[in-house]
Specification:
Elements: E1 20-34, E2 37-44, E3 47-53, H1 56-63, E4 70-79, E5 92-103, H2 122-127, H3 129-132, H4 136-158, E6 162-163, E7 180-183, E8 191-194, H5 199-207, E9 212-221, E10 232-242, H6 246-264, E11 276-279, H7 280-287, E12 300-302, H8 304-307, E13 319-325, H9 332-346, E14 351-355, E15 361-362, H10 373-379, E16 387-393, H11 395-412, E17 424-428, E18 433-435, E19 442-444, H12 455-461, E20 471-476, E21 479-486, H13 491-499, H14 505-511, H15 513-520, E22 526-529, H16 533-541, H17 571-576
Parallel strand pairs: 6-9, 11-17
Antiparallel strand pairs: 1-2, 1-4, 2-3, 4-5, 7-8, 9-10, 10-22, 12-13, 13-16, 14-15, 14-16, 17-20, 18-19, 20-21, 21-22
Amino acid sequence: MTQYRTHNCGELRIGDVGKKVTLCGFFENIRKVSKNLGFLILRDFYGTTQVVIETEEMMNLVWDLNKESTLQIEGEVRERSSINPDLPTGQIEVTPTAINVLGKCRYNALPFEINLSKEADENTRLKYRYLDLRNPEVKNRIVTRSQIVSELRSRMTELGFMEITTPILTASSPEGARDYLVPARNHPGKFYALPQAPQQFKQLLMASGFDKYFQIAPCFRDEDARADRSPGEFYQLDMEMSFAGQEDVFSVIEEVLPPVFAKYGIYHEASKAPFVRIPYLEAMEKYGTDKPDLRIDLTLQDATSAVGSCGFGPFEGKNVQAVVCSNFTASRKQIDAMCQEVEVITAEKAFWFRVDENGQIIGGIAKFLQETAADVIASLSLKPGDFVGLAAGEKKSAQKTAGVIRRLLGNLAPEHMKKDCYEFCWIVDFPMYEIGEESGELEFCHNPFSMPQGGMEALKNEDPLSILAYQYDLVVNGVELSSGAVRNHDPEIMIEAFKLVGLGEEDVKAKFPAMYNAFCYGAPPHAGIAPGVDRMVMLICGEESIREIIPFPMNKNAMDLCMNAPAEVDPRQLSDVHIAIVEDEKEE
């Protein structure tokens, strides 16, 4: 196999009995029976093999070795007297004729047991990530990631897409998150930026005449961590198509992704094409979110007319949204826990009541509804056994809170959630503009480079808040995998779109010079999308934390504990790039 071994630790079978073999791997464990009998487990990337020590001489070689030392074992394969049906190599064992220590572990105690590393403190795992990755369960996540990326590449290539890498050192661009800046040694006072996404470059490729582009693109954003988002860097399946529109992008994604999810996922069922399409406003009305989990069959109802005037203070003058869940059997303790979680997530309170077997309203805010109980039941079409979760506030806020209630009820009421599948959907028809919560002024709702529906005529003649964009999100099981859009490739329409948010032609030229100029030379209509690879693998593997599927992730504070980054650098390095560290003045 190589100069060090003839076989790996996962491949020997009963047909190999009698063979002389050489194995290499990590010393996982040894069960010592006596001074001349022990059962050693050797582990490598491929699996484990039992090695039976049957002489005092051999036992002396391994007696004082620390676990995780790397060994080379020469010996003969024989049939095991006690078969282990749970192991692929469980019918055989190896009796050694020679044991060589290739790499000695110099520590008596490991920071954690390798096979139990997932139970260790996260920062300890990240500091000793090279040991954590020896755990077969952890390693297999990275193997799966590699297989998924390989399959994505293959499928995109088969569909005629060309893989092209785009620059890592580029110009800072206002794309929503903070840039990572890199000082330019030969240009004092100037900086490169690591790309938040290859957005402008892939559009320039379309303007250059390339027809179908993709890459597994690294993206860099200085933003906080979440369970489904790693700080610092992430990867996406970035794609763009010339002479194409929304339907063309949908067709590609619907062909590429479901087979990958079904093949590698913990669930082997994924939505077939075409995916459900839900306009943004409808998604908010029905699900209280633009990332609906369609495995849950519950929807929102506007309950303002039914309960808004019941005399309950939090409902007065507010919009009230309800989620009705039939055959609800959760306990009061579970309901209270759900309401508490809603408040943690949304900073808004959740309210509730139930309908008992006699058709009476009970629990929660029931005392405020007794006088109008019949009308409430009729208005919301309630029946015995129903649970009603409620949220109140401004309409958009109430919808979002009710959307969280809906999601949590899906977990509490199994019959309302089809768990063992991947449900994809497209969220379409996003508003082009919105009023900014902080500025109070008109802003782009999503991507400023999206083509407005209706084009120039809409921009000139319609209320900006009524204009929709050719923009779409891909959602699976309540998780946003990607945003995409039909791009605004017409400089005149682009200038008009930016003018509505107070930016003139000179501003556009200054902020996006290459793209604006390229489009002035005649650009084809084009569209694209970029599903997140890390988030995709996390969903496929059924992991709750995205750090489980990244080989060397940062912690929640954007620190690489394994490599001790970020770190201070030599003053000479700072001098080379014309940087001086200025300490913050401490208040006395």
